[in-house]
Amino acid sequence: MGLSRKLESVERELKVILAQGVFDIVHVGHLEYLRKAKLAGDLLFVGIENDFCVRSNKGQGRPFNSLENRLEFLSQLQFVDFTFGFEDAPLYFDPEGVEMYIRRYKELRPNVVAITIGDPNTDLKLYQAEQAGVGFIKIGNLKKDSTTRLLQAIGYE
């Protein structure tokens, strides 16, 4: 059996989970989300929104940490297998943004997308996963930390 066939066989057997987000200032809620996502599969890929996307969706003072720094930080976590930044920059509620996420899922082809229960966009994210033919897991019971709340508490926002 050739190497490419062996790799295909291994690839088919591994369950790839895609977790995504901003991860601007990583807090306990983020860590819990990523840890639980990893438990649902074999490989955890973490896609991180680029700086332009964060600024467009969260305001001019964001992100607090650059994409490069967010990638570096998350790549050091034991339960994260691979991190990457998204090149595209969808606006969350723009119809084109909705389609952009569907295209992402189709291109990346994870087995499962991790979705946080209680996220205001849960229904939209479920729709996007279903439209792309990707499975999903709902991750709940997370600590209710928020980067925005933390930045407000220190007077940054």
How does this model look, in words?
The protein is α/β, with parallel strands linked by helices and 157 residues long. It has a single domain, classed as HUPs (Rossmann fold, 3-Layer(aba) Sandwich). It is built from 7 helices and 5 strands, in the order αβαβααβαβαβα. α2 links the parallel β1 and β2 (43-48).
Write a concise synopsis of the structure shown.
This protein is an alpha/beta fold and 157 residues long. The protein has seven helices and five strands. A five-stranded parallel beta sheet has the order 3-2-1-4-5, sandwiched between helices.
pLDDT average, as an integer? 85
Order of helices and strands: HEHEHHEHEHEH
Number of helices: 7
Q: What is the CATH C-level name?
A: Alpha Beta
Low-confidence stretches: none
**What gap, in angstroms, lies between the N and C termini?**
58 Å
Q: What is the global morphology?
A: globular
Say which CATH homologous superfamily is assigned. Answer: HUPs
Q: CATH topology, what is it called? A: Rossmann fold
State the helicity in percent bands.
40-55%
- What is the CATH architecture annotation? 3-Layer(aba) Sandwich
* Tally of structural domains: 1
In which order are the strands of the major sheet placed?
Answer: 3-2-1-4-5
User: What's the count of strands?
Assistant: 5
Structural class: alpha/beta
- Largest sheet: number of strands, sense, barrel closure: 5 strands, parallel
Key structural traits:
single chain, 157 residues, alpha/beta, Rossmann fold, five-stranded parallel β-sheet
SSE layout:
Blueprint lengths: L2 H11 L2 E6 L6 H12 L3 E6 L2 H8 L8 H9 L6 E4 L9 H14 L3 E5 L5 H11 L2 E5 L7 H7 L4
Parallel strand pairs: 1-2, 1-4, 2-3, 4-5
